[in-house]
Amino acid sequence: MTVLHRPVVGPARRVRTGVGAVVDPIQLGSDILQNVAVLGTTPLLWLLVALVVWEDAPRARAAGLGRNAFWLLLPGALLGSFADLPLFGWTGNILAINLGGGAIPVLLSVSLLYRGVPGDGRFLATFLAGFAVQSGASFALLFLFPPTGVVLSAAVGLAIAAPAVVLALVALGEPRATFRLDLRRAAGLLALAGAALYLTFLTTEALPGFGIVSNFPDYLFAPVLIGILAVLIAPGVFHLDRPVGLSLGYAAATFGVLVGADLLRQPPLYGGSNPQIYAIGGAGVLDLLYLSGLLALAVGYVALRVIESRRPVRRAAPEPSGPYPDGPDGPLRAALVAAQAGRSGEAIPLSAEAARAAARRARLLLGVAEPAAGTPTWAGLPAPPWVEADQQNLESLARAPPPDAREGVRAFLAGRWLVNFGQEIAGRRFGTLGRRVAAFLIDLVVLTLPAALVWYVLALASGSTLDAVLSNRPFNAAALGYVGIGFAYFVLGESAFSTTVGKYLLGLRVSDRRLRGASLLPILVRDLPKILPLWAVANTLAVAMAVVAVGTGLTGEAPGLATGGGFLPNVGIVLFLGVAAAAGVGLPGLVSVLFIRGSPERQRLGDLLAGTWVVRAGTPERVPAGAAVPSA
Predict the structure, then answer these.
(1) In angstroms, how far is the first alpha carbon of the chain from the final one?
(2) pTM score, two decimals?
(3) Is 336 a member of any domain?
(4) What are phi and psi of 147, to 5 degrees?
(5) Chosen domain end from 248, 281, 310
(6) Which residues span the domain enclosing 351?
């Protein structure tokens, strides 16, 4: 049995008559409605998140929901459903967390709280500590009282409310205003998460052989209530803009379900059944842990729009552009649109700005200082004099009265050429295709060699036949866990150190578009495509190591590769699995190669979505002084 918590029910119940068993039409209709609701909820929530992030960008930015969050919640969760990360084992049981249905919602919740609430992280640390007390107290009470009844319900409710009340009382006597505000915010979020935890526990149950389930519409109560409350109390309790309530509701609902179902409803922890592999969030995008945060976000967004339609609101200010905003791509695209529409007065300045942005990006990547005021745009860069002459022509044209429409097209073509030139000279800083492929292969070897040894040892200890090995729980946990551990290896290495073993050996590192270390969310998005080759390796080489260890059992002789007539069949199967593993790694790798070759900044798909670069580590080569461009 795998412990999941799907928001679905089992088969339609039957009622007995004098003739035999017939299907209850009311129950059958209810079951059909529930399953339609489950299957339709996820895509509808995805659509709403897409509308918020892409069509309502000011509210999304105010809530901390950027495009990285969208990529994690949609394709990221789908890909992550293939990966389980083992946490620990006990008495033959193994607890794991599914990447798509469990780890991504939890990590995203932490990120939203850290980015959405101003401060130095003290609020987040206080909340997590208080929530640990809530969870531990609730869990302990399940050992002191029967798992059902009014007494248990009241005790768990008091245990959940106590940390929030204590924090609120401490905040009243705290003389420091900032710390008092952090305590108040933590107390408010603990109350929301505690309510979600309590309601989730009351509306879920553990079904042996199936998992942790909640009937429709019971599983809607907690996220709907929390989503609305978070938006309503965001200004008064949290002293935050209402859009931040979307992040608060998402996090509170996610944490509440994580403990209310996945911890408090785990049957083996209370005296257990047969040893199993238990997966938190194991149903992936149909899991209550994944869906509850999205439901709270969706309901909160509707409540936010209703509130704002009834009263004027102060719109969120646009984000500051910074010294290197988005590079030349944005203004160049806008210049093309303006030129096609015949608006040369817009196309020419935008083309000039795109060229300036290309020069700024080249300076950033090559380590060339920004020129002083009045210095030519391309000064200090390895650019011939006529490049600066073209730039000055664009600048002069932009200051002139609106010219003929054809000048807008010519300006765009000149701007595009200058942008391409800037990308070409800056390309020396990006990691080459050969180095990146070699770095990934080194990382794959670093991950797979110890994993293969573990698979081999577990296969030897699992039995004398291939069937016995493939049905062994530790062996399966090690095979499934390889994907999660491999993903964690890339994410932790690139987010904490900006590199991995392979990249470090080849002098590469991962950065954002300002050459700083990328934060957790972009790294998560960047590494999601790696799940596919890791999954291919886990599903082929693990079986190959089992065949190496015990043989296939096809000949009836002693197990092993070198046992008479069993040698050729075993070798053939191992070779076939090896080819399948190479294909599973090579096909996604080919897609990455095509993206890298086609991208001016040598970005594969994950880099394009996350906005990251793979650059050469260390100080970039300095441009020779003789390459400086004289004034035009």
Answers:
(1) 75
(2) 0.85
(3) yes
(4) -70, 0
(5) 310
(6) 329-428
